[in-house]
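Issue: copy button drops trailing tokens. Both records pasted manually instead:
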Amino acid sequence: MNKLFSLCLIITFLCTSCDRDEDPVAIRGCMDEIAINYDPDITVPCNHCCKYSCDTEVTPINLIYPSNFPTPDIPIWNLLTEEGVNLGRHLFYDPILSSDNTVSCASCHKQEYAFGDNTQYSFGVNQAVGERNTPILVNSAFQSYFDWDGKTSSLEDQAVRPLFNEIEMHNNNWSEILNRIQSSELYPDLFCAAFGTSNIDSSHVLMAIAQFERTLISSNSRFDKWLNGEVQFTNEEIDGFDIYNTERGDCFHCHPIGLFTNNIFHNNGLDPSPFLDLGRYNVTQNPLDEGAFKSPSLRNIEFSAPYMHDGRFATLEEVIDHYDFGGHDSPTVDPLMKYIGVGLLLSPEEKENLKAFLLTLSDQSFMNNPNFSNPF
């Protein structure tokens, strides 16, 4: 009896030691409220320590990306697993997330259009029409702000917005979403595999979708192969790259080599003031942000027309013509728009060469990756 008591004391001490850091102020352990061993006093997350109602083990995923990409922004409490990504992929393509089971994330973010849409504005529940062009989902793991105006700063937070947007998925509350998912034959097992519980929770819905979106990495274009010495560029593509990456075309400031976006907000001279859409200002309330929008990645730009936050340009030729024109002046136009009133003065041949380079950013392995496609 004494031996059994001593053994219990040792086990209790060891379990406590696992959950507590040596620093008495920093308490390490499980912060997931639906876990069996959730502790409200935790200050340092250790969510791989969480225990749930399902007896399951997850398979970690390590993202593979080029050295000229930044470190991916993956929260410690939502590390990628094969099971979590699989669940997120199903949720991404499933209209069960919308109020009338007609609209999924993939309804607007289509793989064949670089996870954007080929219409100026996308359609939601009851064919309601959106107010901005659908942004592409390419290399989102390496970005810090999402949506054209940067209203969200994580993929988990971003996934909430369309669920309750009256134009998009038009849900009223989490209860109705979770009831639909919990009632399905598919999802309890998938949630069990991914998060160790068949008790479906809103946070796990968002975490799974974000996990899947972080795997959408594009880094195998003709440009990447040229950069690695695997293929040769044509003379036109070489000249187009020179135009792109020098003051001849002045593209590289906002769309630098690598991600081909600087993840910063710019007023690129689309309109004179006053602006119909105030852009970043709607988030920051800073007058200097009026008319500023996030620079999108140019990877797979061949497939992501129409272009700009309002989808005003149907072709790459129109985009190039806008910058060749120099843009419209306004009190908040970005200082990088240095050719307003003058223009780039590109010749027709130079415009064609610039377009030829932009087409080298197409990544067929990304566009046709079966791991990104509809699982149903």
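Record 2 (pasted manually too):
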Amino acid sequence: MNKSILTKREKEVFNLLVQNKSTKEIADKLFISEKTVRNHISNSMQKLGCKGRAGAVIELLKLGEISIEKWLYSHFFI
């Protein structure tokens, strides 16, 4: 079994990020502060060696750590 690169919370943050949620919307949904959201994103980017959120999202999609399929399905097929 492969160990995830991200913590459960980091994965939750990025799954909301790929749904085009703002930092505030993510914070509200997860009941955490906006600063904590930014920390989760920053920690993830550091783990991945990425300089920006977009690069981190692309890398996480390539690694199968996050998925946009649920979002795509809900927006285009329902």
